Amino acid sequence: MYSKQILAEIKKKGIEIGDKVKVTKGKESYEGTLMPRIELGDENSLIVKLKNGYNVGIEFYKAVRMERLGKGENLGIIPKLTIKRLKKLPGVSIIGTGGTIGTHVDYKTGGVFMCRSPEEILSTTPEIGEIIDLKNTQRPFTLASEDMNYKHWQSIAKSIAKELNSGPRGVIVTHGTDILHYSAAAISFMLRGLSKPVAFVGAQRSPDRGSFDGSMNLICASHFAGYSDIGEVCLVMHGTTNDDYCLINRGTRVRKLHTSRRDAFQSVNEKPIAKIWPNGRMEKTGIEYTKFEDKKVKVDDKWEPKVALIKVFPGSDPSVIEWYLDKKYKGLVIEGTGLGHVPTGQSGTKMGDFDPKMSWIPYIKKAIDKGVTVMVTSQTIFGRVNPYVYKNLRLLSETGAIHAEDMLTETTLVKLSWVLGHTTKPEKTKEMMLTPFAREINPRSPLDSVAKGDGFF
Amino acid sequence: MIIMDYQKIGLRVGLEIHHELNTNEKLFCSCPTLLKTKEKPDSTIIRHHIPVAGETGKIDVAVVEEIKKRKKIIYEIYDDCDCLVDTDSEPPHRPNQEALKIALTIAELFHCSIFDEIQVMRKTIVDGSLPSGFQRTMLIGTDGWVETSMGKVEIEAVTLEEDSGRLIRKDNDSATFRLDRLGTPEVEIGTGKGIASPEHAREAAKAIGDIIRSTGKAKIREGSVRQDVNISIQGGDRVEGKHVPSLSLIPVVIEKEIKRQQELVKRGKKVSRDVRRVLPDGSTEFLRPLPGAARMYPETDVIPIRTDRLLKEARKNLPESLKEIIKRCQKLGLSEDLAKQLANSGHMELFGKFVKMFKVDPVLVAGVFVNTLRDLERREKLDVNQLSEKDFGELFELLSKGKVIKESIGDVLKIKLENEGLSITNCVEKLGLTPISENELKRMVKEIASKNKGAPKGKIIGLVMAKVRGKADPKAVMRIVEEMSQ
Ligand SMILES: [Zn+2]
Q1: Is this prediction's ipTM beyond 0.90?
Q2: Would you say the pTM of this structure is higher than 0.80?
């Protein structure tokens, strides 16, 4: 945003953002279009797009003169594209929720806009119209994914169910990537009796550029939703840094493992269900999955929002748990170290340096005594936690904390909210937490369960 | 010979001179600015670009048909000079401050108006030469000029941009680009009015190049300078001659293009606005139609840059002019010609440093940077850009300590360039070039003289030299033989 001084000046001169202007400063003068000030930078500099296409900043002060030359071209037009429908193709609906895949950079201003409709999203990937028959498009909300919470998941779940129960054989959900794996896991629990493909799709690069990765993700997701015999919530995105194939990762077993690469999403503790190429070829890895059936899905989106994630670190202060107890939290996921450890102060010699007040055990015990469910996962990301190998683990397990097997931390967190939405009884909670509802737990640890797409970093 | 009245035919010539800058790191990441460091790339990446909506917001149906073919773009990756930023897998880092400072210095030397705030822009490039699909570029200054014998030539714009990848191969379904050069900072200087004739264009191009190189920060290597020339005459239209390989070809290209356009006009044909490839004889052939203004929009991943602080620094450290450099070098004993060549070699800074650091003859140091490197490049076809500051430092240190003699410099550098991984000291050892001591030399002369009693001095010198080639200074051999025969 421009400074007050600039805003006052342009108002006085009857200039609007987007008008052609002449700015004179001493002997120099520049003609061009007055641009909006986007985000950062010096709010006291006018941004002018010169005839040669460059935007430049001209510092504004009293002696700088500004003159309106006329109306400029329209700013902020999003490319429009009508998708042609081929009714003989399999019916698939699209639900747009925002994120990079759903943004549009206005080439004139450089401003980033959220697409107003899924059709606008598809303007980057018109070939989808030749893969599926786009039955319907919904846009329950438009958000960067980091701003989402369970209410948005409930609304996505309802939108998906509405679509699937009215004909289409699959749904594609476009979504920001930051918390995409939380959403995919949450929706996996909320959709009961799901037997049709639901593809979550995001993009790591913006759609304004030729290298937009979301385009191939959408194409692969269309093949998955339109043709595959898989009836689960899956995340379909790049398998490697190449634009060659996507992975079909199970929604409860996938995690964002890189900040910026195209292949940031990889399955953890199990292989992806399949690789899928933009021409529709699909190669399954052999792991089990729920088969496609044309039947109705039910939404079960009961939810307990008072659930938190706490990360243990060397010297971490366990009294943070009391804060959560004061706030009446019902469930805690503690992301421990290694096999699922927390500091206890009872592991060996020279314990004089360990302040007994820093042991997590009494706090966890207190939480459990108050009826709070405490789950333990590991910050190693890969692997299964174990309550028995070391003394510290046994101490933790004796408090009644539940080790979450080979469940991902993020999956454990959303599952705990979902389970606590259904029961408040500790025994029932424990039983449900350790029962797989969306293939989120595997009692076996397959040998090649460390995810390795060909492009794994 | 007909003398052409260029004003009468309405000749308009514009130059676009691209020059890479010699920063340690690339413009938007911390990779070094090296070229292909080994025979084969460490890996390749395959991508497909999508068509992006045009300036009007419409996607061309023909373009959609085109992309269904999914033409492959293959990128050759070198681990030591490419990173995630280069492969469009990570947002750009803060722009290289050194490059900004050099570009500001150059804009200042061209008397440009410099903006208070620079906005990095994305220029859409559709040929695949940049993995992102756009080139990051920033306008540093406008409305400058450069002095020539025929008056001022307008400098319309000084821009700083990231260099693109190098096209290696192209066929019907793929294009291969090498990503070593990608991301290297380069300035582009565009001229406006003021070029009066083809010969004047050459002079202006030289003057522009001289000023860029006077910063001592211009990169000198294969492909580091690229010159395009825009030509039009009355009744004709604008045609761009792409990549004129040398200054001397600039007037030839312009003359030939004038003739071509005149012929077309005479035959009543329209001159089409094209980009034409420049051939070695200065004639041109059709490459592609002249594109409309490239779509440009802000790079939202980089915050706008205020220029005041950097500009102040740049102004404080404006480089010496070529004249001043030559004068300074002459004081060190260099001939005017050698000084000029040194100034243009891009090694001025290293020269100054080593002359101060080691006790070596400045003429010798300049000779290495000018003649030895040129010989290695032209005769041996070696890529002398692989030689680093450290290599030169080691060489001049050994020279100053008498551990290698000046006659073997060329051989040492040749071995170094042919054997990746060897240090200069290793190369000297490998060649067995450690100089022979004075006593040892005397002993050898004595021995050879006694075996060839009565032989003329010249023959003795010849025999000794054959034995000690590269390890002893011929002058010393002559002196000792002379002394001993007395
Ligand atoms: Zn890099």
Answers
A1: yes
A2: yes
